User: What shape does this take?
Amino acid sequence: MGGLYRALGKIGAIILAATVLSSVILISAKMIVKKYFDDVTAHTALVTAKTQSYNDRVKKINAALSETNKLQDAFNQWSFLVEDLSGITPAGLTLSSVKADGAAGTIAIRGKAGLREDILKFKDNLGRSQYIKDVDFPIRNMLERENIDFDLSGKLIMPIIMRKQ
Assistant: This one.
């Protein structure tokens, strides 16, 4: 029986040695993996810090582009209206103020006409304009024969102005 205890003692010693050896290997592996994890974490933190500044810049650029798109969507090419007004304004008539409100779709025009015929011709020309409709022509514009300060208003035909872009 003494031999059995001795054999069991040797098996126990072998199992203990194997356990200690595997523990040493596992602890060493854990330390190596932890070091690698720490290195990867430090590198990732640096990459994240670098890319964060790029992400912030991209977000700012995207916001600026979004604002620019909103402005472009709201933009009307008023030069077509101004060109049209310049072409239909008789020689004896001077425009002193033109206020076009795209949001309200209205236009108000002030000026001075040398003769009543000039302002009547201008009114008729406005009625045929492709940009203005429903011209309001107050009667006071007709009270004088010469040197007439006049005001008129109308509605803008916005789809036509927008389509010319």
